Amino acid sequence: MQKVKTAVLVSGGGTNLQAILDAERSGKITNATIAAVISDRAEAYALRRAEQAGVEAVTIPFKELGRSEFERQLILALQERGIELIVLAGFMRILSADFTSRYPERILNIHPSLIPSFCGEGYYGLKVHRAALDYGVKVTGATVHFVNEVPDGGKIVAQKAVYIHSDDTPESLQKRVMREAEWIIFPEAIESVAGNIRRSK
Ligand code: GAR
């Protein structure tokens, strides 16, 4: 059975993308093949990571195009490449209900908190960790979930908890959540979801 053709959508540094590429290379991901990395920003360092790994790197500039034209071009790019699974790895745009309804249980996202805490519109990147520290929670973590029309509202696939330290800053917490949770559970979740898709083909 053919591997599940997967596209990774990125906006920034791409450490989660790197963890996914490394997991494919080392044989921890066997059910999916990363066929393309698509960024909404040409400057995203994640695109360089894709090129270094020999994976096609594509930019569809959201700011210049606006959401509906961005999504139109994105759908074309996904169709042209026969993409079956979409992975949002630090992708900082919200996709419309029209887009998400085309790919039910075929879009995965990673969010840097334990959903339903510190999630939804406006909660992304360091803001999530700042909110957790401001609230004073002692445990946070990361969540992999399917993407539907509700921001961070789709079915949860995997979660991992991370303890907060009394001297944490948003930056130190972000790094620990990435290292102890995100980079571990995201490749595992992709392998598991792609396995289910593969068996159902
Ligand atoms: C990660 O912490 C990811 O969980 C978060 O942005 C960071 C991207 O880092 N995503 C969100 O906040 C989405 N709402 P990366 O580009 O190094 O993977």
TrEMBL record:
The keyword Oxidoreductase does not apply. GO terms for cellular component: cytosol. N(1)-(5-phospho-beta-D-ribosyl)glycinamide binds at residues 14-16. Belongs to the GART family. This is Phosphoribosylglycinamide formyltransferase. GO terms for molecular function: phosphoribosylglycinamide formyltransferase activity. Keywords: Purine biosynthesis, Transferase. InterPro entries: Formyl_transf_N, Formyl_transf_N_sf, GART. The record marks 152 as: Raises pKa of active site His. It catalyses: N(1)-(5-phospho-beta-D-ribosyl)glycinamide + (6R)-10-formyltetrahydrofolate = N(2)-formyl-N(1)-(5-phospho-beta-D-ribosyl)glycinamide + (6S)-5,6,7,8-tetrahydrofolate + H(+). Residues 5-189 form the Formyl transferase N-terminal domain. (6R)-10-formyltetrahydrofolate binds at residues 67, 92-95, 109. Pathway: Purine metabolism; IMP biosynthesis via de novo pathway; N(2)-formyl-N(1)-(5-phospho-D-ribosyl)glycinamide from N(1)-(5-phospho-D-ribosyl)glycinamide (10-formyl THF route): step 1/1. Gene3D superfamilies: Formyl transferase, N-terminal domain. The active site is at residue 111. Catalyzes the transfer of a formyl group from 10-formyltetrahydrofolate to 5-phospho-ribosyl-glycinamide (GAR), producing 5-phospho-ribosyl-N-formylglycinamide (FGAR) and tetrahydrofolate. Its EC number is 2.1.2.2. One of its GO terms (biological process) is 'de novo' IMP biosynthetic process. It comes from the Bacteria.
